[in-house]
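Q: Predict the assembly, please.
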Amino acid sequence: MMRRSASKKAGQPNSTNPIPYSPSDLFRTASSKASSKEMERIDNLFYSYANRSSGMIDPEGIETLCFNMEVDHTDVRILMLAWKMKAEKQGYFTLEEWRRGLKALRADTVSKLRKALPELEKEVRRPSNFVDFYSYSFRYCLTEEKQKSIDIESICQLLDIVLGSQFRAQVDYFIEYLKIQSDYKVINMDQWMGVFRFCNEISFPDLSNYNPDLAWPLILDNFVEWMQAKQS
Amino acid sequence: MGQMVRYEDDFEADMLEDTGAYYSRKASSWIEDDSCPDYMLKSEECLKKERDRVSHYLHSSSETKLLEKVQHELLVMYANRLLEKEHSGCRALLRDDKLEDLSRMYRLYCKIPRGLDPVANIFKQHITAEGTALVEQAEDAASNQASNAPGVQEQDLISKIIKLHNKYIVYVTRCFQNHTLFHKKVPHELLVMYANRLLEKEHSGCRALLRDDKLEDLSSKYWLYCKIPQGLDPVANIFKQHITAEGTALVEQAEDAASNQASNAPGVQEQVLIRKIIELHDKYMEYVTRCFQNHTLFHKALKEAFEVFCNKTVSGSSSAELLATFCDNILKKGGSEKLSDEAIEETLEKVVKLFAYISDKDLFAEFYRKKLARRLLFDRSANDDHERSILTKLKEQCGGQFTSKMEGMVTDLTLARENQASFEDYLRNNPAAHPGIDLTVTVLTTGFWPSYKSFDLNLPAEMVKCVEVFKGFYETETKHRKLTWIYSLGTCHINGKFEEKTIELIVSTYQAAVLLLFNASDRLSYSEIMAQLNLTHDDLVRLLHSLACAKYKILSKEPNTKTISQSDYFEFNSKFTDKLRRIKIPLPPVDERKKVVEDVDKDRRYAIDAAIVRIMKSRKVLGHQQLVSECVEQLSRMFKPDIKAIKKRMEDLITRDYLERDKDNPNLFRYLA
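A: Predicted assembly structure:
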């Protein structure tokens, strides 16, 4: 006798055959029930901060969030949170971004979010992640559509936030230089990345292994000249 | 794997050790008794025997280890003692020309790492000693002979040195297999030795001969040293240093003289300097052809020397500007150089030669163009043929692109004359259209001429009519062309009806505009004039100064001070007179230097951009240093780009997405199509 092969047309729910339940299925359903509960909480948390009309968390909302988390809104950890969310626009979080970030941090309340920050910081500071975070922080500050550079004042602030704890001396001197030089009114991504490479590769403050004939951005050549003039 | 372990551990290790011990004993006795050649013979024998042994009854893997062991015991341990053996060591072999033994020495030691170093050293010391002895001999002989035949001793010495050189070249090829360690040392040592001593001799050395213009002696020196490999290098070097020093002294002289003279005769010193540099060039070119047989080495020395001091600044003017001014003086009517046609041609020829040494050629072009414009537009060019001639010469040197604009300017003038003739015909045929004033218009092609600012000058009514009429005419000739009027370049002939007599005043259009205001008003304030004419303060002050405070006071000023201030009042000076019936009221030109430099800098930015893009487009991926050096090379025909400027342009191109930096290698750049 030929066995009749059970064939179902794709996409059509077969109401005659009940879905068989196996133990693993039970487990899966339970955890997916739990995760959908978690997602619900995350969404609710989102809406508690979001702006009614835009459907996004705006700068005001973020400030409130920071207040509740007991973190200053200029703290680097907020930037790290944005990175984790892959947030695109500075000062705003969309639902998708919010979900992405909080799910990854496994936080569905403000208090869990706050507790997740130290771990997040550790994760970001890992060398393999930090370069990505560093370049992200620049892009995050580009507010206009075709914008490619950031003004000096903002760069100084950003440098302090992002690199200040790791490279205090370099950042302080470089910020001082940026404020007094007049060649550049804005900094682009290439120069921004150059600063990071500089902090990592060049011995400071002696600058003994700096070679201006290499492809360092000109602003760094000028910075080194200024430092050397100061030191002599 | 592991198959040789028993062989190596149980047999080979002991064999090597015993071999080592055996040869160690032998060596210690041989080194005492044998001469170096004999010892080496024995060593060679031993090595051969061991090789045979291996091929007869040992495993081939033992060969290297065994030979190394033997070499170590025989040759390495006793290297010093062997080579330095008093009567038979390396030095002795060289002294006694024992090529066979030296060959053996090379063969034995070349296999040992760094084994040849001591041999090469001894070789070098030996040659140096022999050469020095020759030189000292010659010096003694020369001092004994007084100045009887000074050249003879030197000639003798040179030929001895050449013989020495050839002898040791043979050693290098026959004994030392042309090994680089030995090859380098031979000519270098000889050169260092004699060059310094002979050439630097205070009274008869190369410098002295140059100083005293002893062309004959320099010529003989050339023939002597050219026989020696690389013998001419030090001579060319001294030649170059001498010229550089003389040239730099001239520049410094000019700088001092210019600063002392204050503004008495500005530019005179600079003109004198160019003359002197031309003379210097002629003088030393003669040396190159007469004494140094047109050898490229000396042409190069001359070129490099001139490139050094021909690019220095004198009292704020770059050499490019100085040279352009010099040309202007020759080419303009009433220039400071009153020369015959032939003399002018010759001078222009020499100027173009000097121009080759200037690195900022684009700067020269811009200054030249500005001055050419003035000559052409104010009818100050002395001779059209000369103008074209120098452009042809510059074209030969730098290519058509360099001179195309200037040639266009000269052509424009010819066309403008034709155009004017047509305009005059037009007026004859349309008497109603005549503006009532004789009008000559020169139409210039914008791209060829330097850029001029055009102001919205409020023209006097008479002139407005002129402009309209010409526009009408021009539109009949060509459509689709826009005319922009540059009043700053115009000239006016105005009749000043003074009390004593009427005098024809030749003034610029701006000056005329000011004067014509007084047809309607007797007295005008500075502000009123300003309001009526719509000029900038700087321009107005200049204008009024030329009319009220300079040589010819056409206007009287209240208060009667020497400078113009914004509270002054002006009146037509009816009492003015002059013995001439026609006078020219000059308007001092604005200092063009700043604008020229700005324009050239701007063009350079574009040129660097274009060069970078061109290079990256063809190479696709290129390292930073290579990109920079190729850029410099491509642009070197027109100017020497600043490395920082290149970097800045690269950054700009990165921002504009023409280039990107490689993610992994920050010194590598990629072209983004």
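The mean pLDDT of chain B is 86. The first strand of chain B starts at residue 491 and ends at 497.
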